[in-house]
Design the sequence.
């Protein structure tokens, strides 16, 4: 396949997903966001499988990548709903923190232009002001980027699996014309029965 094919495009998308997920994982570690940390870990593994499967022509690995991509989209939609505080969801929901203390987005206090006050030893909710962009929007932007990349990766993943399958079928079809090809072993072995040959001629005394 040429470098402008769907295979190379999928490799590029997986690479962008890997870079974005590793960056997200670093800041989730800094904020002790344990549920996103676990989700990012599985995302990194499945993206690596997708890269390997695409590069080594392994469609089964790409199917695993695409299947996880559906779950990854659903998870990031849930994160957006959490930061939008839809329904009974809040940013302190245990689904993100897993009940761990002092678990909050790192961007809440370290965003661009943020000024933190009331940071005493006993304060658990410091006052943050002056942020150029609120941490909820930062987290939603991260989630939205992951959703877009996952959808594009899913589409190209299905396309690449289809292309690999078509190539395998075409090879089998070509080999099917010859019963002694590399794809099809001979079914029966013919045997020739040897018979003695008699030649008419003068008898030798």
Sequence:
């Amino acid at each position: 396949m040429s470098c402008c094919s769907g295979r190379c495009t999928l490799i590029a998308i997986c690479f962008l997903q890997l870079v974005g997920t590793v960056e997200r994982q670093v800041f989730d570690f800094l904020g002790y966001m344990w549920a996103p940390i676990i989700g990012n870990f599985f995302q990194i593994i499945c993206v690596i499988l997708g890269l390997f499967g695409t590069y080594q022509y392994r469609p089964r690995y790409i199917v695993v990548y695409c299947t996880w991509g559906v779950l990854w989209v659903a998870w990031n939609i849930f994160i957006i709903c959490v930061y939008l505080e839809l329904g009974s969801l809040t940013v302190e929901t245990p689904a993100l923190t897993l009940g761990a203390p002092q678990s909050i987005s790192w961007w809440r206090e370290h965003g661009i232009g943020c000024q933190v006050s009331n940071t005493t030893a006993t304060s658990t909710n410091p006052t943050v002001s002056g942020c150029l962009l609120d941490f909820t929007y930062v987290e939603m932007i991260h989630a939205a980027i992951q959703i877009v990349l996952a959808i594009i990766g899913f589409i190209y993943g299905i396309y690449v699996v289809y292309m690999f399958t078509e190539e395998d079928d075409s090879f089998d079809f070509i080999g099917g014309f010859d019963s002694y090809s590399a794809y099809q072993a001979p079914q029966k072995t013919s045997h020739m029965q040897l018979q003695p040959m008699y030649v008419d001629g003068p008898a030798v005394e």
